[in-house]
Please model this.
Amino acid sequence: MNTRIQQLFNVQYPIVQAGMIWCSGWRLASAVSNAGGLGLLGAGSMYPEVLREHIAKCKQATDKPFGVNIPLLYPEIEQLINVVLDERIKIVFTSAGNPATWTPFLKDKGITVVHVVSSAKFARKAEQAGVDAVVAEGFEAGGHNGREETTTLVLIPIVRDAIKIPLIAAGGIASGRAMAACEALGANGVQIGSRFAASEESSAHEHFKKKITESTEGDTVLTLKQLTPVRLLKNSFFQQVQEAELRGATKEELLTLLGTRRAKRGMFEGNLDEGELEIGQVSAGIKAVQPAATILKDIWDEYCAVKKSMCL
Model:
């Protein structure tokens, strides 16, 4: 890959660890950054003071660049932004909202801004809003997803043709082979979530990590499309959601079923039956819980080997 992402973030490898809720705390972010990638803190599951604590610990654990992922629909977003400014964070990834709302403000403070999109239309809007790069995330990805249901294989070249700024591919990427494929499609780097969710440093519960490594093809489904589409591992909670959707449940009924702590209960507390287990399709290929540095090195080494073989 060219060096646009390395230069933008001042990192060794064009590999970004996704800012996943309940998984991306200071241990994971600092481990990825220390290994040469870009670690992200997932602020979507943190109160402002918890984010401040994770930033402080991350600074103690690494002298390398790291960033914060902020969902723009977060109810206390102004407080999160204030924490980012107070702590002099230089890289912010935004998602789930209109990038025009905060990008000019953050850029004016000297912050590098990246926005996550699920279509070429939103990629163009993000570029117009002034972001430094976009993450184009395909339908395969875990967690909250775009309504377009466009796969990464289709999405990346369409977005590449639509924008001039650096492009980071996401969704279904957990290997060097996938990274090389994304480069061929036009990406300048990759963002990886599910494989790092199953890392030793991930703040996810050990039961959830084990469940990821035991999953097989077809074990994840994109659901709750009436609310905000989210890809989940099948479990008792998923079955309840599926049954409710099949009988035509209203948005209000689905919101009641979802409750307020489902994701925390599943991913962070390890309730594999009644919790919301957000993970990508690529979980079917993740067979071991490994240190984040090992994961990053394996991906990069495989990527380099693929590139070398393609040039023979």
